[in-house]
Amino acid sequence: MSSVPVTYGEASITPRGDYAHCRADYTCAQHWERYTADQHALFARLYARQMALVPGRACEAFVRALPHLQAHSGIPRFADINARLKPKTGWEIVAVPGLIPESAFFTLLSQRRFPVTVWLRRPEEFDYIVEPDLFHDLFGHVPLLFEPRFADYMQAFGQGGLKAQGQHALQYLARLYWYTVEFGLIRSDQGLRIYGAGILSSGGEVEHSLHTPQARRLRFNLPRLLRSRYRIDTFQATYFIIDSFEQLFEATAPDFTPLYAQAAAQTEIEAGAVLPGEVDEAV
Ligand code: HBI
Ligand code: FE
């Protein structure tokens, strides 16, 4: 399987990673025994950096699930995490060489199989990396797969993605993924919290997402979100806030066809743009 350019957000990236040995569904072996001591140490440093940031800023379900990763001292075996994850929500993580074509990605999500990249960033990429690597996927995405309602949403998203392909609507689903799974915020009794993996695995965006006055924070509004463009190479300029994972799951339950038609008939909204009459949510 050769590495073909993959759409990631609004960019097309020729992914890093060894695709020569992956299966037809793009899954491969983790080869945990091949990670070096330096890579385990780098992973542990990334983990420690985020653990100094996420308590009090990540949503409760994320913080509660982190111990299931057993990742504080280095890179965990995916099989060990699956032994705890599968009984909880029916999800399992599968190893992939890196970014995979959208159809393969959606297919895995629809089967409750989350693709986790096997390669880890280089030390010089400690602070920033564009492509999802092992740390982003494992630390950012896997904890919330232990949360039943979010786990249901992720499978529904995969099923929706398979349907969207026939309707040439992947760009809209990519925006939904971006503004929820990657960069979503959620209301809690203790205040605004983060559930987006792209924020939770980032050294700088945790603070930015909750506090910077430069960013827009809007109530989750699906028609508005589906028109909203975004950037993959800077902190986000707009965030959407949900009230609960139930709200997210229910909002995405109906047939999206009319929503796609509505989005296609209206102009796109630039990242960070303010529409007349729109007000930011109180943070
Ligand atoms: N592949 N491994 C992997 N991980 C992703 O997050 C991913 C992908 N392929 C496509 C993709 N994300 C985005 O285009 C989603 O919006 C579909
Ligand atoms: Fe991601």
Automatic annotation (TrEMBL):
Its EC number is 1.14.16.1. Its cofactor is Fe(2+). GO terms for molecular function: iron ion binding; phenylalanine 4-monooxygenase activity. Residues 1-283 form the Biopterin-dependent aromatic amino acid hydroxylase family profile domain. Fe cation binds at residues 136, 141, 182. Pfam families: Biopterin_H. InterPro entries: ArAA_hydroxylase, ArAA_hydroxylase_Fe/CU_BS, ArAA_hydroxylase_sf, Aro-AA_hydroxylase_C_sf, Aromatic-AA_hydroxylase_C, Phe-4-hydroxylase_mono. NCBIfam families: Phe4hydrox_mono, PRK11913.1-2. This is Phenylalanine-4-hydroxylase. It comes from Thiomonas bhubaneswarensis. The lineage of its organism: Bacteria, Pseudomonadati, Pseudomonadota, Betaproteobacteria, Burkholderiales.
